[in-house]
């Protein structure tokens, strides 16, 4: 499955040859509710095809729709549930994302991808990852306060001790010489040597996991990383880890012994205080910046600053919609002629512009938002 952590915003906000096809739909995790999901998908796919033939008649419609059609026919895919689904396609490009939050149904054909629902998910401050670890294998989970799912490890991340060591452990053990004891020396027993080998292999495996998860998951996602492992593995992994995203507290249990819901509950108990503290830090920083004239809660001012690349941090109220269009050339607000706020939401347009210029966007629950305008911007200068 494709990873939003790797693709957003760099890949999905990049310039791309039109047409770009964006399909969003709510989904279901359990049977029989998820039986309706492929039906909804086919209905949205028909809407995409109609729009494509009307707006881009000269395009190779069949080639653009072919990967969507393959997905519609993939029974195994639809037998796995999620809360939402995003499918994006263009020439030589196709991505499918299972989402941990529901999204409204939407089928858009345009000159660029419609990525606003993804921003609302990716930029939420309650997301995290969990590394499930024992001495033989590793698993990775991603979650938020409401849901958790196991995700595929990048190809570069070893999933087992065998992959990490890249050799046949059993054959190596059977041919390894224990050596002879000298005068006055203690003879190391075979069980002692085997235990030493196991410990060395475990540490080598943990080092490989730490390096690869840092490079291919923690750095791209920027998410805090919780370790779920038995206490003895917690201590050993933390001793060798160089991952700054590794959370100080861990889940002291074999992840295989916990259900997904138990894993989510234990993770959120640990992370909720950090989440609230982090949000309060942004709120306090905005208050200080606004008092010095280095921040604003007004949309026109924030738009002009974002277009100039001046916004360092932007707080957006979750689920708040301000219909309209932003002219990114002039930095002005243009009244919308369309009635669909899901397509023309100036807060989301503003957020995407801040991301494109290297700023940070945080989605804030309405009850914790420090302003009544739906936004709070902190300037770089």
Characterise this structure.
With 381 residues, the chain is an alpha+beta fold. It folds into three domains: 4-122, Translation, Eukaryotic Peptide Chain Release Factor Subunit 1, Chain A; 128-176 and 188-272, 2-Layer Sandwich (Nucleotidyltransferase, domain 5), CATH 3.30.420.60; 293-379, 2-Layer Sandwich (60s Ribosomal Protein L30, Chain: A). Helix content is 40%, strand content 19%. It is built from twelve helices and 15 strands. The chain has helices at 4-7, 37-55, 61-72, 75-78, 116-122, 161-165, 169-175, 190-221, 231-240, 260-291, 299-307, 346-356, and strands at residues 20-26, 84-90, 93-99, 106-110, 128-133, 138-143, 148-151, 225-229, 251-252, 295-296, 311-317, 325-327, 332-334, 360-364, 375-379. It has a five-stranded mixed sheet with strand order 7-6-5-8-9. Strands 3-2-1-4 form a four-stranded antiparallel sheet, sandwiched between helices. Strand 2 (84-90) and strand 3 form a beta hairpin. Helix 2 (37-55) runs antiparallel to helix 3 and helix 11 (299-307) packs parallel to helix 12. It is globular. The two termini are 40 Å apart. Residues 167-171, 177-187 and 338-343 have low confidence and may be disordered.
């Amino acid at each position: 499955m494709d990873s939003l952590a790797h693709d957003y915003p760099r890949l999905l906000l990049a310039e791309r040859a039109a047409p770009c096809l964006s399909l969003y739909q709510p989904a279901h995790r359990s049977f029989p509710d998820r039986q309706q999901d492929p039906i909804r998908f086919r209905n949205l796919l028909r809407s995409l095809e109609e729009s494509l033939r009307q707006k881009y008649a000269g395009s190779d419609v069949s080639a653009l729709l072919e990967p969507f059609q393959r997905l519609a026919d993939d029974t195994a895919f639809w037998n796995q549930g999620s809360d939402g689904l995003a499918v994006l396609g263009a020439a030589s490009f196709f991505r499918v994302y299972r989402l941990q939050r529901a999204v409204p149904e939407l089928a858009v054909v345009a000159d660029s991808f419609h990525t606003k629902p993804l921003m609302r998910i990716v930029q939420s401050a309650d997301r995290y990852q969990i590394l499930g670890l024992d001495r033989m294998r590793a698993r990775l989970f991603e979650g938020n306060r409401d849901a958790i799912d196991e995700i595929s490890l990048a190809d570069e991340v070893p999933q087992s001790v065998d992959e990490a060591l890249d050799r046949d452990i059993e054959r190596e053990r059977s041919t390894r010489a224990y050596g002879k004891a000298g005068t006055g020396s203690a003879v190391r027993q075979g069980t002692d040597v085997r235990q030493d080998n196991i410990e060395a292999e475990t540490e080598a495996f943990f080092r490989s996991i730490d390096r690869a998860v840092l490079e291919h998951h923690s750095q791209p996602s920027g998410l805090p990383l919780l370790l779920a492992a038995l206490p003895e593995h917690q201590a050993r992994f933390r001793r060798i880890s160089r991952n700054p995203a590794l959370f100080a507290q861990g889940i002291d249990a074999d992840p295989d012994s916990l259900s997904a819901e138990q894993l989510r509950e234990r993770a959120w108990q640990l992370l909720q205080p950090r989440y609230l503290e982090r949000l309060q830090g942004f709120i306090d920083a905005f208050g200080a910046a606004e008092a010095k004239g280095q921040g604003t809660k007004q949309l026109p001012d924030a738009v002009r600053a974002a277009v100039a690349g001046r916004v360092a941090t932007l707080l957006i109220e979750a689920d708040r919609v301000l219909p309209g269009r932003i002219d990114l050339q002039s930095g002005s607000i243009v009244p919308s002629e369309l009635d669909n706020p899901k397509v023309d939401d100036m807060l989301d347009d503003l957020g995407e512009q801040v991301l494109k210029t290297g700023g940070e966007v945080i989605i804030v629950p309405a009850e914790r938002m420090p302003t009544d305008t739906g936004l709070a911007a902190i300037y770089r200068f």
